[in-house]
Design brief:
This protein is mostly helical and 291 residues long. It has two domains: 22-97; 118-275, Orthogonal Bundle (hpI Integrase, Chain A), CATH 1.10.443. It is built from twelve helices and three strands, in the order αααααααβββααααα.
Length: 291
C-alpha cells in the first residue's frame, strides 16, 4: 500500500430505475402539464379501459372500445361520452407520437346526444331557498361563493386570501382554474363583507372558505354541504355544486349581462359554451318578429 493511501469502501452501485412500459410512457407524456383534476379523471378512465380489455394500449382494437363503451350502460350519457373522449384522445396522441402503432379510436364515432343542460338550471327562487336555508355562516359563505362568483368546487376550495385584492366595492379574486388558466373574478361587496367576517387566520395563505378545523375545505366536504342544503330546500338529489355555477351563468344572462363578460367570469374556453345558457324567456321568441 502506498503511504497515505487508505482503505476505501467500494462505491455504491447506482440504483437502477425500474423500466417504464410503453403504456406508462404514453400515459405519462399525454397527461403532462394537464391540471390536477383533469389528470386524475383521465388516468382513471384509461385504467378502467385497460382493466376491462386486459390488453396493452397497442393491442386495443375498435371492438374492445365498443364493448367497453357498451359495458357502461348504467352510467349517464355524459359520463360515457367523457370517458370515451379521454381514451380517444390518448389513442390519437399515442399514434401521433409513434408510441402506438395505430389509433384504435379513430373509427369510433360518438353520436351527438340531446342537450339536457336546462334540466340542471335552478330558478333564482330555488337558489335563494338553498342558500337561505343554511344557518351555519361558513357553509352559507361557501354556497354564496359558488353561486355569486360562479366558481367550480375545486376553485372555491383552493381560494386563498392572497388571491383577493380589495377594491372600493368588494374585491377581485385571482382564480387559478381549469386548463391551468388564471382569471379575475369579481367578489361583490356584500359577499366580501361576509367572507371578511369569517376570517380568523390573517395569513395570506389562509383559505377563504376554511373547513371546520380552520384548514382548507376539502372538495368532498364542500360537496356534502351543497347536497345537504339542497335536501333542506326540497330540491332534487341530483343537485351539485356545479348546478350553482350553471345558475350563475343562466341568471346573469337573463339579467342582460353580456355573454363575453359571463364567459370571462366562468373561464369558459369558448363563447359557444356560455351561450348554451341563453334560453327563450316566457313570451319571447323569434316568431314574434315575423309579423
Amino acid at each position: 500500500m502506498v503511504s497515505g493511501d487508505r482503505n476505501r469502501s467500494p462505491a455504491p452501485e447506482a440504483v437502477k430505475a425500474a423500466p417504464v412500459s410503453a403504456d406508462e410512457l404514453c400515459i405519462r407524456t399525454w397527461l403532462h402539464n394537464r391540471g390536477e383534476n383533469t389528470r386524475r379523471a383521465y388516468e382513471r378512465d384509461v385504467r378502467d379501459l385497460l382493466a376491462f380489455a386486459g390488453k396493452s394500449l397497442n393491442e386495443i382494437v375498435l371492438p374492445d372500445l365498443q364493448a367497453w363503451f357498451d359495458s357502461m350502460g348504467n352510467a349517464s350519457d355524459a359520463t360515457r361520452r367523457r370517458k370515451l373522449s379521454a381514451v380517444k384522445s390518448l389513442l390519437s396522441y399515442g399514434a401521433g407520437t409513434g408510441v402506438l402503432s395505430h389509433d384504435a379510436g379513430s373509427a369510433f364515432r360518438i353520436a351527438r346526444g340531446r342537450d339536457t343542460l336546462h334540466e340542471r338550471i335552478l330558478t333564482r327562487e330555488q337558489v335563494i331557498a338553498l342558500i337561505d336555508g343554511e344557518e351555519e355562516p361558513r357553509k352559507r359563505a361557501l354556497l354564496n361563493v359558488l353561486y355569486r362568483m360562479g366558481l367550480r368546487i375545486s376553485e372555491a376550495c383552493a381560494l386563498r386570501w392572497r388571491d383577493l385584492t380589495r377594491r372600493q366595492q368588494g374585491a377581485v379574486a385571482s382564480v387559478f382554474g381549469k386548463g391551468n388558466k388564471t382569471r379575475p373574478v369579481q367578489v361583490p361587496a356584500k359577499l366580501f363583507k361576509e367572507l371578511m367576517a369569517l376570517r380568523v387566520d390573517s395569513g395570506p395563505d389562509a383559505p377563504v372558505i376554511p373547513g371546520h378545523d380552520g384548514c382548507s375545505l376539502s372538495k368532498d366536504a364542500a360537496h356534502r354541504v351543497v347536497k345537504r342544503a339542497a335536501r333542506r330546500a326540497g330540491l332534487s338529489s341530483r343537485v351539485s355544486a356545479h348546478w350553482l355555477r350553471h345558475a350563475h351563468a343562466s341568471h346573469a344572462l337573463d339579467n342582460n349581462a353580456p355573454a363575453h363578460v359571463v364567459c370571462a367570469t366562468l373561464g369558459h374556453a369558448s363563447l359557444a359554451t356560455t351561450t348554451r345558457y341563453s334560453h327563450v324567456r316566457e313570451g319571447d321568441g323569434s316568431a314574434k318578429y315575423l309579423d
